Amino acid sequence: MKKKILLSICIIIILIIGAIILWKINETKTVSSVELVQCSMDFDKVSISVKEGSLTNKGVTLLFTSENEFVYSVCSGPDYQIYRKKNEDWERVKGKDFIVQNSVIRRPATKNLEESIYWEKLYGELSKGTYRLEREISFDDIGTKFVIEFIVK
To answer: Where are the domains of the chain?
Structure first.
């Protein structure tokens, strides 16, 4: 009987030590914060910003605003690229293979638009580093692109 109790205690201690080790491993991978460096677009009729508190290592929510109504168009699917800064160069982050469909999504005319981009399924959670998100879009059938630069800490 004493051997069974002693064996049970040893197994419990081993399980607790294993859980602590796994917790410590995951703790080092945890991202403490994400800092926005730049959010810009080459289109002066519509402004772009990042919704407060939405930028993470998994995705972002963008806000497009204008004094006049605009029609927003984008290709369906994940038609954006993420780059990571290595030294002074930008290298494209390798994600899962995907197919960008040729269909275009046109949103009804509006003055305000909110769009969320979640790259976790394509790129996974981004580790610590400096990143750049680029996407081709169009407003009122005029093509442009936006760029968001951020640091995962």
So the answer is: 1-30, 31-152
pLDDT digits (tens, 9 = 90+) for 17-76: 766 766 655 544 445 688 889 888 878 888 999 999 999 999 999 999 998 888 888 775
Listed residue (79, 68, 60) closest to 118, CA to CA: 60
Q: In this structure, what token pair is assigned to residue 30?
A: 């945890």
> Using one digit for the tens of pLDDT, what is the confidence trace for 72-109?
887 756 678 899 999 999 999 988 766 555 667 788 88
Q: Give 77's contacts (C-beta < 8 A, 6+ positions apart).
A: 98, 99, 100, 101
What architecture is domain 31-152?
Sandwich (2.60)
